[in-house]
Specification:
The structure is a single chain. This protein is of the alpha+beta class. Helix 2 packs across helix 5 (544-561) and helix 5 packs parallel to helix 8. The radius of gyration is 35 Å and the shape is globular.
């Protein structure tokens, strides 16, 4: 037995040795092959990189502060010890290095040996920051390198506070567990450009990349003598890109003939083409992507047509049919569309019935949360700006919500706020005890207390064009005493997407002029989302400042409605004098100032070649000023001032159109190009938009001062009884006299009826 065993062992060793030798030899050949392949691939890569180096742009560094990512101070405390920041990287760029610079303050009560801050990127823990005792209680700075290999298209940097204040049993909600990361912290990214293929299927990239949270700056290239029709086509494209940019805002610097060193839109016809770009003549509307002549990493989106009509068709083909464009070039053979109905902007709340909150979400999980103290859930409500809310209680909401029910009655709450104002708070009761009947439980047919329904009302006075509806769950944690439990935060909360809001019962009726509606929602021009009944007055098609103002305003309206401006008209000053049945938007320029002077000197502000004519009107500093309650009595004496001054001045002005009753003129007027730029900057700064109201808003020195006049007109329609009750209510004397007359009339009718009744009875008695 022993000899057999030893023989078997020897045979096994020989076999294993031969197998090992064979595997080693095979591995050697494989490694040699991989090495040779790797060397060849490296050589090819080096050659390709060397070839690309002659045309590539150098890597750029981008410093992004936390407050630029729409983040305030990041507070980590107790059970709310996790927070994150979302960062996107453009499709045409790659992160090759990243450093995180944190400004951090933390509690002096935490134990340094057990406490630390963990930093993760896309779920991968990359660093921990120690929290030493000697630095506690004051702001410190720490710099962390982030491995670029973990960056992807969409990225999240997550901060986890692991805090302990005792070696014994701890309360997870103890107030000594806290740390705060300042909004002045920043992320430094080193980005290398990547060449994208010329393919229309990638649109809107690289001209707009939804992963990029920065303001969109997209150059527009026009021929030196661009016609007004060509400018209109460029304006249509800018409205589409502004719609895509949404909250980021969008600017469109204009270049005549010269190609900028950045992604750009190029507009050309066979007779009028940019000089720096060799484009072939076309016989059909064409959209194509080409490389920049001096840098193939920079792309040009070229719109071409045999003439201006074909050029417009090419742009319309992009904004209406971008979903089916592919390849380096596409021909737009036919475009047809129907004008949109009023108030059907996709980004406005529908007025044809109740709307589900699920239809208003940006992400599927937006109305779901977890934890006993979750982050608030927000829904953006964009309302038609001319809703008539007079004498109405408000907007009804049918709210349905679910949550992990507590075991016993406590102080768990759901708070509902609207524009940061509390609407209602609801207690969250525990789930009822099982009846114990042993029957079959069918969840779809059984009602449970963990799903609640409530009806509430948004007060009419709180409604604005852009609103935030917020839901905040706060679940109470039941402590059974120290060392008697392990804290497990497994609660879940949700607002049901079938919760509804209904504005269908509100008519459209607004007192004008009102610059608040224009600044916040583009009204009255956006009443038709495609700007069908809008005419924009461009003083000079060669004025760079006026063109950039035009493209910005169109992009902003596209952002507000979610629709490209397919239907707008572009006029000059002479055509504007004859324009009827349209709302007019005047852009800055000398011809616009002359047009305003032609329309009348009773306007509150006018410019001529050297002077500024100002007609005194009342200040409109109160945001809650109600145009419908303005004094319609005797007009007060007002001053007229003529001023000659250097320096820039810009203003927004609104009044009823001299060409058509019930139509509105909004004028952007300025003393020079700097004043025109200040108007664009004011519309882009949300802190200044809230100051634009009334009939006149003057922009100077970076501040906005608004004024309101005495002339009021109304747009929209009401039922006859609503119209009568509303307008009579504004005049208390007339209302009093009307009420007295009605009372007297009713009394006389009753008196006459009683007299006839008495006479009839007397006649009956006398006859008997």
């Amino acid at each position: 037995m022993r000899s057999d065993d030893s023989q078997r062992m020897q045979t096994c060793k020989q076999f294993m040795g031969k197998r090992f030798m064979g595997n080693w030899i095979a591995a050697a050949f494989l490694l040699g092959g991989l090495t040779a392949h790797g060397v060849a691939a490296a050589a090819e890569g080096a050659a390709a990189e060397g070839a690309a180096a002659s045309v590539t742009s150098p890597a750029r560094e981008a410093k992004i502060r936390f407050d630029e990512m729409d983040s305030g101070p990041i507070a980590l405390h107790g059970v709310q010890s996790v927070a994150g920041l979302n960062i996107g990287t453009r499709r045409d760029e790659m992160v090759i290095a990243a450093r995180l610079h944190l400004r951090l303050t933390y509690s002096p009560s935490m134990l340094p040996d057990l406490s630390h801050l963990r930093v993760s990127l896309n779920g991968q823990a990359l660093a921990t920051i120690a929290l030493p005792k000697e630095d506690a209680g004051r702001e410190i700075e720490r710099e962390i390198g982030l491995d670029p290999r973990y960056f992807s298209d969409y990225n999240q940097i997550r901060f986890d506070l692991i805090g302990h204040y005792s070696l014994d049993c701890e309360d997870p909600q103890h107030t000594s567990l806290w740390a705060t990361i300042s909004q002045k912290s920043d992320l430094m990214l080193t980005l290398r450009p990547i060449e994208l293929r010329n393919d229309l299927a990638l649109l809107p990239a690289p001209f707009f990349d939804q992963r990029d949270n920065r303001r969109l700056t997209l150059a527009i290239v026009l021929p030196a003598k661009a016609s007004r029709s060509m400018v209109r086509s460029a304006g249509l494209a800018s409205s589409w890109f502004g719609m895509l940019a949404d909250y980021r805002s969008a600017r469109f610097p204009v270049s005549f003939d010269a190609l900028p060193a950045q992604h750009a839109l190029v507009f050309a016809t066979n007779e009028s083409r940019p000089a720096q770009l060799a484009l072939p003549a076309v016989q059909i509307p064409t959209v194509s992507i080409v490389d920049h002549p001096s840098n193939r990493l920079v792309k040009l989106l070229v719109f071409q047509g045999k003439d201006e009509a074909q050029l417009q068709q090419a742009v319309e083909g992009l904004v209406l049919g971008s979903a089916v464009l592919t390849g380096t070039s596409a021909n737009i053979t036919q475009v047809s569309y129907r004008r949109r109905a009023a108030y059907d902007a996709p980004r406005w709340l529908r007025t044809d019935g109740a709307v589900k909150l699920g239809e208003l979400l940006d992400a599927p999980g937006q109305l779901q949360a977890s934890g006993i103290s979750p982050a608030p859930m927000r829904v953006i409500l964009r309302l038609p700006p001319d809703l008539f809310t007079w004498n109405r209680a408000g907007v009804p909401i049918e709210l349905h919500y679910r949550y992990t029910a507590p075991h016993e009655p406590d102080n768990s709450l759901l708070s509902v706020t609207f524009n940061d104002q509390l609407l209602r708070s609801y207690r969250l009761p525990p789930e009822p005890q099982s009846s114990g009947d042993g029957g079959l439980a069918v969840p779809l047919l059984r009602s449970t207390a963990s799903r609640q329904s409530q009806s509430l009302m948004i007060p009419a006075f709180q409604l604005a064009s852009n609103n935030r509806l917020q839901f905040q769950f706060a679940m109470e944690h039941h402590r059974q005493g120290l060392c008697k439990e392990v804290f497990v935060d497994n609660t879940q909360e949700a607002i049901d997407p079938d919760s509804t809001i209904d504005i269908s019962s509100f008519p459209h009726y607004a007192a004008m002029p009102n610059l608040t509606l224009f600044a916040n929602a583009g009204y009255p021009f956006t009443r038709y989302a495609d700007l069908t009944e809008t005419a924009i007055v461009l003083p000079d098609a060669a004025d760079r400042a006026a063109l950039e103002q035009l493209f910005f305003v169109l992009g902003r309206m596209g952002r507000q409605t979610g629709v490209a401006a397919v239907g707008y008209q572009l006029l000059d000053a002479q055509q504007a004098q004859r324009a009827v049945n349209v709302d007019l938007l005047l852009l800055s320029g000398a011809q616009s100032n002359n047009l305003l002077a032609h329309w009348g000197r009773d306007l509150p502000l006018a410019f001529d070649a050297a002077d500024r004519h100002y007609h005194e009107i009342d200040s409109a500093t109160n945001p809650a000023f109600d145009r419908t309650r303005a004094d319609s009595g005797a007009k007060r004496q007002a001053a007229d001032v003529v001023v000659r001054a250097n320096g820039s001045l810009g203003a927004f002005m609104s009044f009823e159109s001299p060409n058509s009753a019930g139509r509105t003129v909004v004028a952007l007027i300025a003393s020079d190009s700097d004043g025109a730029d200040s108007l664009v900057a004011s519309l882009e700064d949300e802190s200044k938009v809230s100051s634009i109201r009334g009939d006149l808003a003057i922009v100077r020195g970076g501040s906005v001062q608004s004024y309101h006049g005495e002339s009021i007109y109304y747009v929209g329609s009401l039922s006859w009884w609503q119209w009568l009750s509303f307008h009579v209510s504004r005049h208390w004397i007339l209302l009093t006299l009307t009420s007295l007359a009605a009372a007297i009339g009713v009394a006389l009718l009753i008196y006459g009826w009683l007299q006839r009744l008495v006479a009839r009875r007397l006649a009956i008695r006398s006859g008997s």
